[in-house]
């Protein structure tokens, strides 16, 4: 699965067994899709949203979609994750919709995407610096490295608003950030490909996703997107600190940093009621 670091499928399965308690405490009931690499990490992978027809009956699913109907997997157990792993899945992508309410997102997401060549420490410091701006709107911000070069900030919400309304509220927050910080953008066309830090708000659009907390990433070093406290994030030097080899040990030595996520749910700041 990860030839550069000698990881086989059974090693990835062991990793998910090691972290499944905090992982499932957060993701159980969510819909998700996957990125598969049937020909190996060195070949192009592909995203798969539909649960295949050959999937076993015990995997729960739900058909959803505004423009196109998709049979999404509902993450319910370690067994479901391991079944997908057996289909050569190296990344799980979480949609912020959770059973029994598949209409109202559970959180608002800010995907911090750096331009080519930007050191991780700079994107780390930028992410920490915009936390007060995000929280000034009344949100509680939780952070995790993306597992690649960026970072994800998730803000728990009461499940009362549509994805469209969450997206518009996130856009207001993003506009304030780019007004205060040069060389940043919320416009993908003016983002990292033009040397700017992109604050990708499209993660909030209907049925979009962020990489699942605790998921492996499809990179040579088998990095992991580990939820953590802000003070721990501030000490990170590189995404490669958290890999399949190291993340389960780190998680075992730390309390679940996102255990209070649901309790921190807030109102949408644009709701005038």
Task: Please explain how this structure is put together.
The protein has helices spanning 9-27, 78-85, 120-135, 163-180, 230-233, 247-252; strands spanning 30-36, 46-48, 61-64, 70-74, 89-98, 107-113, 142-145, 151-156, 184-185, 197-200, 210-211. By secondary structure, the protein is an alpha+beta fold. Strands 1, 2, 3, 4, 5 and 11 form a six-stranded antiparallel β-sheet that branches. It has a five-stranded mixed β-sheet with strand order 7-8-6-10-9, covered by helices on one side.
How are the SSEs ordered, and which strands pair?
Layout: H1 9-27, E1 30-36, E2 46-48, E3 61-64, E4 70-74, H2 78-85, E5 89-98, E6 107-113, H3 120-135, E7 142-145, E8 151-156, H4 163-180, E9 184-185, E10 197-200, E11 210-211, H5 230-233, H6 247-252
Parallel strand pairs: 9-10
Antiparallel strand pairs: 1-2, 1-4, 1-5, 3-4, 5-11, 6-8, 6-10, 7-8
Helix pairs in contact: 1-2
Could you give a short description of this structure?
The protein is of the alpha+beta class.
Characteristic key phrases:
6-stranded antiparallel sheet, 6 helices, DNA primase, PRIM domain, 273 residues
**How far apart are the termini?**
51 Å
Going by CATH, what is the homologous superfamily of the largest domain? DNA primase, PRIM domain
Helix and strand sequence: HEEEEHEEHEEHEEEHH
Question: Helical segment tally?
Answer: 6
Rg, alpha carbons: 18 Å
Can you tell me the overall shape? Answer: globular
Strand runs, count: 11
Overall mean pLDDT stands at: 94
Largest sheet: 6 strands, antiparallel
Number of domains: 2
The secondary-structure class comes to alpha+beta
CATH architecture tag of the largest domain: Alpha-Beta Complex
Helix content: 25-40%
Task: Give the CATH class of the largest domain.
Answer: Alpha Beta
């Amino acid at each position: 699965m990860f030839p550069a670091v000698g990881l086989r499928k059974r090693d990835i399965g062991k990793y998910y067994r090691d972290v499944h308690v905090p992982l499932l405490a957060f993701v159980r009931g969510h819909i998700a899709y996957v990125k598969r690499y049937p020909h190996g990490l060195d070949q192009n992978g592909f995203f798969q949203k539909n649960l295949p027809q050959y999937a076993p009956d015990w995997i729960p699913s739900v058909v959803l979609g505004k423009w196109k109907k998709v049979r999404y997997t509902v993450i319910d157990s370690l067994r479901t994750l391991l079944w997908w792993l057996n289909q050569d899945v190296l990344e799980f992508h979480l949609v912020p919709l959770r059973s029994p309410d598949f209409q109202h997102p559970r959180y608002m997401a800010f995907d911090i995407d750096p331009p080519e060549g930007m050191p991780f420490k700079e994107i780390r410091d930028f992410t920490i610096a915009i936390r007060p701006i995000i929280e000034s709107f009344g949100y509680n911000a939780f952070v995790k490295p993306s597992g690649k070069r960026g970072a994800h900030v998730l803000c728990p919400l009461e499940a009362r608003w549509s994805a469209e309304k969450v997206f518009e509220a996130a856009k207001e927050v993003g506009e304030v950030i780019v007004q205060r910080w040069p060389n940043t953008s919320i416009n993908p066309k003016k983002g990292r490909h033009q040397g700017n830090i992109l604050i990708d708000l499209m993660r909030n659009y209907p049925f979009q996703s962020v990489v699942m907390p605790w998921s492996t990433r499809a990179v040579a070093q088998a990095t992991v997107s580990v939820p953590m406290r802000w003070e721990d994030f501030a000490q990170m030097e590189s995404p490669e600190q958290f890999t399949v080899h190291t993340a389960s040990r780190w998680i075992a030595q730390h309390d679940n940093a996102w255990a209070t996520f649901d309790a921190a749910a807030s109102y949408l700041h644009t709701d005038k009621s």
